[in-house]
Write a structure and sequence with these properties.
Strand content of chain A: 35-45%
CATH topology of the domain at 3-24 and 59-142 in chain A: Thiol Ester Dehydrase, Chain A
Strand order of the largest sheet of chain A: 2-4-5-6-3
Distance between the termini of chain A: 26 Å
Largest sheet of chain A: 5 strands, antiparallel
Largest interface: A-B, 56 and 56 residues
Structural class of chain A: alpha+beta
Order of helices and strands of chain A: EEHHHHEEEEEE
Number of strands of chain A: 8
Oligomer: homodimer
CATH class of the domain at 3-24 and 59-142 in chain A: Alpha Beta
Number of helices of chain A: 4
CATH architecture of the domain at 3-24 and 59-142 in chain A: Roll
Shape of chain A: globular
Amino acid sequence: MTQLTSIGFDDLAIDQTASYSKTLTEADLVLFAATSGDVNPVHLDAEFAAGTVFGERIGHGMWLGALVSAAIATQLPGPGSVYRSQSLQFKQPVKLGDTATVTLTVTGLKARMKLVTLACSVTNQNGVVLAKGEADVIAPAAGGTLQAPDLPAITID
Amino acid sequence: MTQLTSIGFDDLAIDQTASYSKTLTEADLVLFAATSGDVNPVHLDAEFAAGTVFGERIGHGMWLGALVSAAIATQLPGPGSVYRSQSLQFKQPVKLGDTATVTLTVTGLKARMKLVTLACSVTNQNGVVLAKGEADVIAPAAGGTLQAPDLPAITID
């Protein structure tokens, strides 16, 4: 079981930050291709990708968006958040084996709607910015802790 | 093999549209949880989700973003596109069994950079808007057709 902690609106403050990291494995890339349906060979075929401007297979840009959404949903504000909007600018490709780190920073708080604005940045293990953007999220009224179910085992042939 | 066709910048026109549909299966939801790391029980635990405002398990909001990115990468402009930016407003939750249809419409063309602006809308099988936004994409210089590799078989226990 994974324990997830949410932060209630009243416990959020401007400049509060959280981070979330994930390394792009072959499995992550294949699962993103499957769930989205984006089967472009630049992501899946090493020989094809070698002939592109990237020179090697790259991850899906929106996989970085998926990590940003996971950071919001699991870290800041965490479970119970309601996603309102997200902007993303894609700066550099994410490559297999890269560790992408999402950093969220609270930049706005509107108490009436419990609306939180977050600056979102995704960097790789070398500090290169892969993507950045902004999110608007409705925070949970109160914080708390819950158990996340384990995922079923996934096997890729 | 899946055949993918790209549209070169010079063959794009304002108001040109394309669409892309996917039905949210249990497998898609689990694979998105795995690749993103968002294991919130509102997505994975039916009993927990029944006690939330949604009343049932919902898909991840950013799964809709993944579909938008797949629509761009496979349909309009298709393979060879370079994703520059995406905005998304999340309007309604996507539920298991929903068929989400992404509609892309060309709203801007800047020849110097081969930059295409796309209005992006995602609706469910009842015509309800689940998400909408805008994308900026650099189109391929020329169109063409290529074969996408088949994905390996994925088994979920």
